[in-house]
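SAMPLE LOG
Freezer: B-3
Tube label: C17
Construct: single chain, 211 aa
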Amino acid sequence: MNTTTADVIREYGPFAGAEAVHGVSFDGRHVWAAVGAELLAIDPETGRTVQSLAVPGDAGTAFDGTHLYQIAEARIDRIDPRTGEVLGSIPAPGGGADSGMAWAEGSLWVGQYRNRRIHQIDPADGRVLRTIESDRFVTGVTWVDGQLWHGTDDGERSDIRRVDPISGEVLERLQMPDGMHVSGLESDGGSVFYAGGGRSGKLRAVRRPRD
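STRUCTURE (predicted):
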């Protein structure tokens, strides 16, 4: 397993009125951050908030190319990103104990923080299709180039780790600097991870190592 110090290349925020940064997603242009009572769309070039949706979000956020998905307590809402309208809801697999979320391969991938698991679920009904075990508390979850990465937090230290999507074996770790915690996690599809900073109210861009 390769362990390196995470290269934090930019910080955004804290954002006005944000209790914390929970879920994080990316729609190809903007980074979306769930901050409690709102979903914010942030321009990664300027750091400016360009849109806000009045929808609750206390955990993971995902984008399927058309809709946003947002964990709110024990449910996952499917949201129109233009209007904020909730178009439908499914049960969250952890019943309120969920953390990060990502979209990949036509499924939602949902972390369970203290249960140290990632579930692949059917976005139509919330049915669990597969479960991957972790050896650390799971925060954010993302897929990029066929690789599964997730954030961790044990209250003292956080890292971003690449794991085998079948066995859960840890393949690579990016250790966050002291005092920087990871809540939500998303890739831009290239060289950058966006990591929520929990109660700091910040969002951080972290360089993704390339093979």
